[in-house]
Write a structure and sequence with these properties.
Layout lengths: L7 H12 L7 E4 L5 H13 L5 E4 L2 H10 L14 E4 L3 E3 L10 E2 L6 H10 L3 E5 L4 E2 L6 E5 L4 H10 L3 E4 L16 E6 L6 H9 L4 E4 L1 E2 L5 E5 L4 E5 L1
Parallel strand pairs: 1-2, 1-3, 3-6, 4-7, 6-13
Antiparallel strand pairs: 4-5, 5-12, 8-10, 8-11, 9-10, 13-14
Helix pairs in contact: 1-2, 2-3
The structure holds ribose-5-phosphate.
């Protein structure tokens, strides 16, 4: 599993506490990453104790973990409702005075396209994070999942938008990261993002962009695990 920075205890606290929101009969979106993994494991424990749930994984990694811990799986097209989605984030704007409060940047694990599909479909979307993910403003590179044939034209378009794109390289093979959907990832630096809604809509309109990692107005709450407790932000 890809493990980002941040304390394992803090991540565990956030993940395990979010899993407490899962009720009998729920369909649950299973996000991706090292923090959500704790939630998936806790849901697996609850299933072993008799809780009846069905999970919708958002990546190869979350599917494998869900199978390992015994969570019955389903798909988005086989259900009418997704009751809850639990997912991590790479950045969470944590400033109640900002219009971007609760906006996320995701896709550090290149899973943001399926994550957005499932998180947006859920009646409630809970983010799990440790304090290293919280920021006063939206400033971090935005991952774009792009069709392989489109990577250079999308990169040109990002430069037109004053962004600085770089093709994400794989760590353990020569060449680029290939997503679970067979696409590539451009990490795009835009500096501080003052109008996330506008940038999100512009990026969505670029031909060849499958999905971007800006999650605007999607999260309902963030569980922030700390060294010795838990804080909950509601949006
Ligand atoms: O593509 C990956 C996802 O958006 C993850 O949810 C995000 O990268 C956070 O992962 P972690 O909890 O490992 O920091």
């Amino acid at each position: 599993m890809k493990t980002a920075g941040g304390s394992a205890d803090a991540k565990r606290r956030a993940g395990e506490q979010a899993a407490q929101e899962v009720e009998d009969g729920f369909v649950v979106g299973l996000g991706t990453g090292s923090t959500t993994a704790y939630a998936i494991e806790a849901i697996g424990d609850a299933v072993a104790d008799g809780l009846e749930v069905r999970g919708i994984p958002t990546s190869f990694q979350s599917r494998q973990l869900a199978l390992e811990v015994g969570i019955p799986l389903t798909t988005l097209d086989a259900v009418e409702t997704v009751d809850l989605a639990i997912d991590g984030a790479d950045l969470v704007v944590d400033d109640p005075g900002s219009p971007a409060h609760g906006t996320l940047i995701k896709g550090g694990g290149a899973a943001h396209a399926r994550e957005k599909l499932v998180d947006a479909a859920a009646d409630r979307f809970v983010v799990v994070a440790d304090p290293s993910k919280l920021a006063d403003r939206l400033e971090r590179s935005v991952p774009l999942e792009v069709l392989p044939a489109a990577h250079s034209v999308v990169a040109d378009r990002v430069r037109d938008l004053s962004g600085d794109p770089s093709l994400r390289a794989a760590e353990h093979k020569d060449g680029p990261v290939v997503t679970d959907n067979g696409n590539l990832v451009l990490d795009c630096e835009f500096g501080p993002i003052d109008d996330p809604e506008e940038l999100a809509s512009t990026l969505s309109s670029v031909p060849g962009v499958v999905e971007h990692g800006l999650f605007v107005d999607l999260a309902d709450a963030t569980y922030v695990g700390t060294e010795d407790g838990l804080e909950v932000r509601a949006y």
